[in-house]
């Protein structure tokens, strides 16, 4: 029997001899992890200093509580610092936060606004800039990709009169892959470097460290001041630009704001996102050649490219009202929806792709199956981690295909940076944009949650296979609960989990009421789903929510999941027997379908009766409404 099999039998997911033993083991673990519950709360200064003599009161000042801000928040908390968060949109809110919290240090991991001079003169303010030393300006990553930079970095600077021009407290560099997109570069390479640089910079505070002022005219300074990138700087000339140039231009604007493209036939424009090479199709430049799962393929001078998503730009209200069913909601949606339904362009035929994993970089594919020896791999990578109803159905079919393979004993279910490279979300659950633009949002939400529940059930109900979930990107709401259905969960160390639904006005489903308490205990499950705070992969590992947090790039997590699955498969007969025994005991106490029925009863009320305010929360989210102040769950200075 392999080591991992013995571990699973002794301590793991399905190895207890009886349900009572499983409960007893979990109760001991629950008592241990509940002692850590206070670590998810803001401690008083006295408590924090007593536990960590180098504890600092740090105010995180950010333009949004995005993935990077969350990761920095959790990292600084794990280092023992007393951290509170505030948004930078309103100057008076910032001043009030500083006055009430009394920070030793202000750290800005994601900042679009200028910090007033009197603040950075009175307080030490450290600002993360996503560029190399000397680089200044608001479009650093955009220019780096458009100019084909092969090395980029981050720098932590002091607040100064000029944007990004303060003395340097820490810096990091990294290699930029040729196929990097703006959103993936920020979410993976920049985030990883930022965590390291911010940790170093915070460590310097209160020591005799002297930050380095930069002579921007020095020959050793590669970075330069560059302006805000305009759409004209990256516009595509379809009659001249080849595939590589088009890919680079779209990738430089991916995420936000997108690459603006005029469609003369519709007398309208749309922002383009998600560009992928296509090696098997040819056509006239800018000719629409095919569609696939919402993506649209365009011909180029030397090949073709897929565009997966788009956002209509400045449709008149009258024209928008004529569109069915999306009205004037100009959200980021599958390109075929925007071009076909909002702009009214005739679309080419659907060109499906099979489940077999294609050669990376040769076409667009967001769900695929691979077989490596006696282990099957279900790979998926959905744009921004949003899983629409049909996305869930395709993923379900792939899981069914994997489970039908009699010559495999284990299945790895891997999501995130697994098909297109770079960074990607594992899953953020149901597709809020698709729900909001639907003719009947309540019905679409209902169909979407049932579809993702079916995906989870396919993972749960796998009696002939051992399952390993591999989380290769951030995961939120139902996307954070989905992998917990697997027998084993592996995550990249930099993954941030948001295992809660309440901030979106939802009760939640995905069998979370079964899977989360099973892993972390009832008390901690309640803590995670009601306090609505993020946790990083290391914290999730300590709580038992995941089994392994793997350092290094996301590919290392997939390698670890693969090796775990192979070792589990080597002891498949014993482990599958124990798995069947535990399921029988578990369902005798409470059948799985009861968890789903109870959850969906609440979700039906959320969708059709708006019992928890889902409609307003959803509209605020998809409409990107900015809050003037951080919510109290992260702004401890207002509690």
Automatic annotation (TrEMBL):
Query: What Gene3D superfamilies does the entry give?
Result: 2-enoyl-CoA Hydratase, Chain A, domain 1 (3.90.226.10), 3.40.50.12230
- Cite the Formyl transferase N-terminal domain residue spans from the record: 89-187
What range(s) does the Formyl transferase C-terminal domain occupy? 229-312
Q: Which InterPro entries match?
A: ClpP/crotonase-like_dom_sf, Enoyl-CoA_hydra/iso, Formyl_trans_C, Formyl_transf_N, Formyl_transf_N_sf, HoxX-like, NiFe-hyd_mat_HypX/HoxX
A Pfam family matched in the record:
ECH_1
This protein is called what?
Formyl transferase C-terminal domain-containing protein
Which species is the source of this protein?
Zooxanthella nutricula
């Amino acid at each position: 029997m392999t080591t991992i099999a013995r571990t699973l039998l002794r301590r793991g997911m399905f190895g207890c001899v009886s349900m009572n033993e499983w409960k007893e083991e979990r109760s001991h673990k629950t008592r241990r992890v509940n002692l850590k519950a206070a670590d998810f709360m803001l401690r008083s200064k006295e408590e924090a200093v007593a536990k960590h003599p180098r504890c600092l009161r740090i105010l995180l000042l950010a333009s949004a509580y995005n993935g990077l801000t969350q990761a920095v928040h959790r990292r600084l908390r794990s280092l023992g610092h007393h951290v509170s968060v505030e948004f930078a949109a309103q100057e008076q809110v910032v001043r009030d936060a500083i006055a009430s919290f009394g920070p030793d240090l202000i750290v800005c991991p994601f900042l679009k606004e200028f910090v007033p001079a009197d603040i950075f003169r009175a307080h030490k303010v450290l600002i993360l800039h996503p560029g190399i030393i000397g680089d200044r300006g608001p479009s650093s990553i955009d220019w780096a990709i458009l100019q084909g930079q092969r090395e980029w970095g981050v720098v932590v600077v002091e607040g100064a009169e000029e944007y990004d021009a303060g003395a340097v407290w820490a810096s990091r560099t990294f290699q930029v892959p040729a196929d990097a997109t703006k959103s993936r570069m920020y979410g993976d390479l920049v985030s990883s470097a930022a965590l390291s640089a911010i940790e170093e910079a915070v460590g310097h505070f209160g020591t005799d460290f002297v930050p380095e002022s930069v002579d921007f005219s020095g020959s050793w300074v590669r970075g330069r001041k560059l302006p805000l990138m305009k759409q004209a700087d990256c516009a595509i000339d379809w009659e001249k630009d080849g595939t590589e140039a088009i890919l680079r231009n779209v990738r430089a604007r991916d995420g936000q704001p997108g690459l603006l493209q005029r469609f003369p036939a519709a007398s309208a424009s749309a922002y383009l996102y998600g560009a992928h090479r296509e090696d098997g199709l040819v056509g006239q430049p800018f000719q629409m050649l095919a569609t696939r799962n919402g993506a649209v393929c365009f011909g180029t001078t030397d090949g073709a490219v897929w565009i997966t998503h788009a956002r209509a730009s400045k449709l008149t209200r009258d024209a928008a009202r004529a569109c069915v069913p999306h009205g004037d909601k100009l959200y980021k949606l599958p390109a075929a929806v925007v071009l076909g339904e909002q702009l009214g362009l005739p679309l080419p035929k659907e060109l499906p792709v099979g489940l077999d994993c294609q050669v990376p970089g040769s076409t667009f594919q967001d769900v695929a199956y691979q077989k490596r020896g006696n282990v099957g791999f279900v790979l998926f990578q959905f744009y921004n981690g949003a899983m629409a109803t049909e996305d869930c159905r395709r993923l379900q079919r792939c899981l069914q295909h994997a489970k039908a393979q009699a010559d495999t004993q284990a299945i790895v279910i891997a999501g995130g940076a697994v098909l297109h490279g770079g960074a990607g979300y594992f899953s953020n659950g149901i597709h809020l944009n698709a729900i909001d633009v639907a003719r009947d949002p309540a019905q679409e939400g209902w169909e979407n949650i049932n579809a993702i529940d079916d995906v989870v059930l396919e993972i749960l109900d796998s009696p002939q296979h051992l399952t390993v979930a591999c989380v290769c990107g951030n995961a939120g709401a139902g996307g954070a609960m989905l992998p917990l259905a697997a027998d084993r969960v592996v995550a990249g160390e930099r993954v941030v989990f948001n295992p809660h639904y309440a901030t979106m006005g939802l009760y939640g489903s995905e069998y979370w009421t079964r899977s989360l308490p099973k892993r972390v205990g009832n008390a901690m499950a309640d803590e995670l789903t009601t306090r609505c705070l993020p946790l990083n992969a290391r914290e999730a590992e300590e709580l038992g929510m995941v089994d392994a947090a793997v350092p290094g790039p996301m590919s290392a997590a997939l390698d670890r999941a693969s090796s775990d699955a192979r070792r589990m498969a080597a002891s498949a007969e014993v482990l599958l027997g124990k798995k069947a025994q535990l399921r029988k005991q578990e369902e005798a106490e409470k059948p799985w379908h009861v968890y789903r029925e109870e959850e969906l009863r609440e979700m039906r009320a959320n969708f059709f009766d708006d019992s928890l305010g889902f409609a307003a929360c959803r509209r605020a989210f998809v409409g990107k409404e900015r809050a003037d102040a951080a919510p109290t769950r992260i702004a401890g200075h207002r509690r």
